[in-house]
What we know:
Elements: H1 2-51, H2 59-65, H3 67-71, H4 84-115, H5 117-130, H6 139-146, H7 149-174, H8 178-186, H9 191-229, H10 234-243, H11 247-276
Helix pairs in contact: 2-11, 4-5, 4-7, 4-9, 6-7, 7-9, 9-10, 9-11, 10-11
Amino acid sequence: xxxxxxxxxxxxxxxxxxxxxxxxxxxxxxxxxxxxxxxxxxxxxxxxxxxxxxxxxxxxxxxxxxxxxxxxxxxxxxxxxxxxxxxxxxxxxxxxxxxxxxxxxxxxxxxxxxxxxxxxxxxxxxxxxxxxxxxxxxxxxxxxxxxxxxxxxxxxxxxxxxxxxxxxxxxxxxxxxxxxxxxxxxxxxxxxxxxxxxxxxxxxxxxxxxxxxxxxxxxxxxxxxxxxxxxxxxxxxxxxxxxxxxxxxxxxxxxxxxxxxxxxxxxxxxxxxxxxxxxxxxx
Length: 283
């Protein structure tokens, strides 16, 4: 009993010591500085709104105007009259479908380029030609192929998601140490086993970096695509509210889009840590 009490006291003292050391970092770096940054943005918004008050609401006015969206994000009040939560889920669904289809294509192509000089010479010019093309330039082609807004948006996301993942995967594969591959050849390891046991584990950080960049670009693109195609989605919501000169809802949508992008990137980062057993790197 006395030993347990002493052990508890030791842990309590150690915890207090650790908190004293970490407290300045937590208060300053995690709470104080981010709060000051957000306050600066809000004050800037407030100042601009006061200078142009006929059109732009102040932060308190925008909060009051958006209370219904905030408190009831999943309401359904007739055809096309949906809460912002449903619109966000529709956009996330399109992004994830296009992104996953792009990853299924991009990762094998990246492996092929990284492992074969002939494939690199054949495919690299195609990548360099199509990579700078604006995602919205693909939209008319997608509409001509599918004649529907939803698959066209997914196709644009698919095309957009290819290039960063292909390039980063190829870079990771080509960066694998030649010594490891030489040892595998000496041991007469089959090619598929070299890929699964040596090349893939060494390339995973590069692959996940490409995936995170692709997902961020895909989330940027879906808003612009939905503005043009219409239908249900957070991008069309932004355009529709602007058409009504309702900037309060536009500010809410901007905040929701930003937070969703942050959550998606965080989720891929956590998946990277789980798969690679290494801390994620910033992109």
